[in-house]
Amino acid sequence: MSDHVLLEAGGLCKYYHSGGSDVAALDQVDFQLEKGAFTVLSGRSGSGKTTLLNMVGLLDTPDMGSLHIAGENVLALSLSERANFRLQRIGFVFQAYNLIRVLSARENIAYVLQLRGMKKTERLAIADHWLFEVGLDGLGNRRPDQLSGGQQQRVAVARALASKPALVLADEPTANLDSVHGESLMSLMRDLNDRCGMTFLIASHDPVAMAAAQQCVYMQDGRIVSVATP
After folding, report:
1. Structural domains in the chain (count)
2. Which CATH number characterizes residue 41's domain?
3. Which residues span the domain enclosing 212?
4. Which residues contact 44 (CB under 8 A, 6 or more apart)?
């Protein structure tokens, strides 16, 4: 794998049993992601983009194929080793935000750093920095239910980036936002990608997300059918 390539997947297959037969959610997917990329996986519902994202995030295991991330053969790792790899190397932005409701925005952002064993003063200082980066300076003590949907998603982005992961994965990050907040979020993520050099892989069928991408990977029936630059 080249030094410029962060992720390389070869022949990934995933099958689900439905209606008495096997359905291919992923069908011989070959995929590369360069370091610093801002790539959107696009396609209709059921095309396989979320399944591929789950494979890359080590949340699911393919039935066949290979997957290397940051030079590591991640499919050869044990379950505990995969969990640690996710903690150390991958940041997640979920469609439903997945914030811890009893924690403040500041504490939510610092949570992954806490899991890594970082001291409280240090992790809260990093959380404050990322609150500023995502435009929520001064709102760190608010709980999720005291924030708008757009603000909650920005907290989720800050949480994903605070640990400076090798790869940031986002699953339909604009799905619960109106067009104005969706455009604002994608602009924020692209700006952070440009300035911080973090690698983003986003699953979305939102035209706003596709317009922000450096590269769009179109999926259909579990296969990559085309790759384009908007």
Report:
1. 1
2. 3.40.50.300
3. 5-228
4. 205, 220
